[in-house]
Design goal:
Amidohydro-rel; three-stranded parallel β-sheet; Metal_Hydrolase; 341 residues; 7 helices; four-stranded antiparallel β-sheet; 19% helix; alpha+beta; N-acetylglucosamine-6-phosphate deacetylase-like
Length: 341
């Protein structure tokens, strides 16, 4: 049976057409469009309510900006280090928006004032994905770069690879760029064909950065999941919008991407691990602290079983074990003082 959630007692005080309270009937089986669907049911002011505009438009307009609240913090038993926020959108091309809702995309004709209006602050942002062809984007990119923020070209209409016009892909082998070019690739077996992995790696192996593109449904299993205002269908390794065949991020983990990169591109274990650790650290300019086991770097590392399929056994953050697989062997540590070494 459905129940009712409201700010006033429902018994003897059911909604009226003049009532602006939002009433939510939960756990309902609704007859819609010729079939029974399981969903919640919302009423306000005598009308059946679509909750999405209420909670993702009205609420967002009233809320304090989120990004300024996400502080850069060191890692520990509670989780990994927060190195900063990577924001993808809303300054992207409508023609290459992927699963991003079209109505929330923005232009940057107003320059940095628009960026600050959208994000609230850029102090906690480490990386921004932007379509560089948008009017005003070049000025914004220069300003962000001067602040030490990494700017990534993405969701862009800049031409794709052609033998007479290599487009963005041509940057991988360009002789006109003095600094290394890095590029992210989703090695999940869904977004990228194995042949594309091999071509990308052979064109510029030192620049490849493995990306999971994982979103909130990762680890929740198959089925329909609510991600923001979107309903996403997860089937195995694939996540797509319910009403379209548009990919909506990914549900794979980084160790899965490493395994697929090894098998799909035919690379060595060392090359795959570097693409997941050292290369992204170089992108962010923190390879003196992260992404390597060199002396003096942060003790963030994993112990893996590399005989057979790669398997993570233990995860360490700041030298402390924060995860152990159920079949991981017991670890034995020997404490030593500097005089013992």
């Amino acid at each position: 049976m459905p129940s009712i959630t409201s700010t006033t007692p429902p018994c003897g005080n059911l909604p009226t057409h003049t009532d602006t309270t939002i009433y939510q009937f939960i756990n309902c089986r609704l007859v819609r469009r010729g079939r029974i669907v399981k969903d919640d049911f919302w009423v306000r002011g005598g009308k059946i309510l679509n909750p999405e505009p209420v909670f993702y438009v009205e609420k967002l307009q009233a809320d304090v900006k989120v990004i300024p609240r996400i502080k850069k913090t060191p890692g520990g038993p509670g989780g990994a280090s927060i190195l900063g926020v990577h924001v993808e959108g809303p300054f992207i091309s409508p023609a290459k928006k992927g699963a991003h809702p079209l109505q929330y995309l923005e232009g940057v004709e107003e320059g940095m004032s628009k960026v600050l209006d959208v994000y609230g602050s850029i102090d906690n942002i480490a990386k921004i994905t932007i379509a560089p062809e948008l009017p005003g984007a070049q000025e914004v990119i220069r300003h962000l770069s001067s602040r030490g923020i990494v700017v990534s070209v993405g969701e862009s209409t800049i031409s794709e690879f052609h033998h007479r016009d290599p487009g963005l892909v041509g940057l991988l082998t360009s002789r006109l760029i003095s600094h290394p070019v890095h590029y992210g690739i989703i090695s999940d077996g869904i977004h990228t064909h194995p042949a594309a992995l091999r071509i990308a790696h052979r064109a510029h192996p030192q620049g490849i950065v493995l990306v999971t593109d994982a979103m909130a449904a990762m680890g929740l299993g198959d089925g329909v999941h609510q991600i923001g205002q979107m309903k996403v269908l997860v089937e195995g390794r694939k996540a797509r919008l319910v009403d379209f065949d548009t990919l909506a991020g990914s549900v794979v983990t980084m160790d899965d991407c490493v395994r697929h990169f090894i098998n799909g591109a035919g690379v060595s274990l060392v090359e795959a691990i570097d693409a997941a650790t050292l290369h992204p650290a170089r992108v962010m300019g923190i390879d003196h602290l992260k992404g390597t086991l060199e002396y003096g770097t942060d003790a963030d590392f994993v112990l893996v079983l590399d005989k057979g399929p790669l398997k993570v056994l233990n995860t360490f953050i700041a030298g402390e074990c924060v995860y152990s697989a159920s079949d991981a062997p017991n670890l034995t540590f020997t404490q030593k003082s500097p005089s013992d070494i």
